[in-house]
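The protein record quoted in full:
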Amino acid sequence: MRKKVHSFTALVMAMTLLCSCSPKIDSIETEQDSSILSKTSNRDVVSIIKKANQVYEKRDSELVKLKYDGMKESPHSFYRATNYLFYQDFAKTNLFSAEQVTIQGDLHLENVGTYKSSNGFSYDFNDFDDAIKGSYTYDLARVSTSIILVAQENGFSKSDAEKFAKQFLESYLDYTKKLKGNSAELNNPISEKYMSDKVKKLVKNVSETTTASFNSSFISSGNLMESKKVKKLDTETYKRIFVLLKIFFAKNNPSYTLKDVAYYISGKGSLGRYRYLALLQNTTRPSDTILMDIKEAVKTNFSTATENQAQRVINGTKFFLAKPNMFLATTNIEGNDFFVRSLLADDKVDLSKLNKSSEMEDFVNTISYLTARGHSKSNKNDKILSEQKRVMEIKDFAVQYAEQVKADFNQFRKNI
């Protein structure tokens, strides 16, 4: 049986600021239409969530509490962390398509951001934990609902939020038609002409961040520095993990040697998984350091229990990102699959600041392009375009499901 990593009691005390900065929300008003989602009314949301997190609860209940506190911040925060709940509900609709493409698998507005390509920094999907072959409509429905939730939380009316979701789906179809067989656009980082103004500024700012300055925010006196995201391992765990990772990096990145390792806390839905941050030092130039993110990979909604989950994530990363300039590998630590990747400067659009219609429309257009571009890499454009009616029906689903999320959020806040 896997040993517990370490207690997070002190971590939770230090991390409360992450969850206490949002305004108190007692409940969210809902206007639920049952025409599509009538089968969701009798399910016990709290029990489903607890079951999904029971493995992590056994590892450390304090870390799960931290996760739950984050989920209570807003309906969209709750939505981000409950992809499994969305999958169960979406499966009850008739919106699944027989057309299988490689999908991102958990597409919401927080899962896009900057990344480093061989051509410099660009913008694309930034999370591939759930990447898998599946129905393209799953991605469309998940991000359409995300768009509506974010728009409403930013003060837009329900009719405006619906308009943004409709815009996303229509633009997705337009870009799917445009991108058919367009290898130049599919195989290179996206052009600035498809980036919203906020995305352009984001890419520019990250491009001006040096590796040294980024790494320095994690390092003190030559070792990893404790912070909201970095916590020391207990002595026993440190020794075990350090030895295993030292062997791994000696084989896979011999120009660098492992200097330090710590527990890494990031994300929302994945909180509870084993995740480590490694500091590596160049064997001949000690001032040259790199950071590695080592994250446990778990079975996703569409994957099988027998496949290597870490390799699935790496395959998805390489499939979606054009010319990624980062270290990517897999390993197994004490019986669990992990994927290993460079931790580099990156950033995401602050969704709370998308409070003008023009800004929201501009950003939604970027998301439409990225989604169509990602799906077009599977060369099923004609099949997707033949299902335009199904695609546009997703708008009504998303409108209704946003209300379902609010109802679930209220139930969750009340009972946990």
Observations:
- The longest helix spans residues 388-415.
- The chain has a mean pLDDT of 92.
- The longest strand covers residues 256-264.
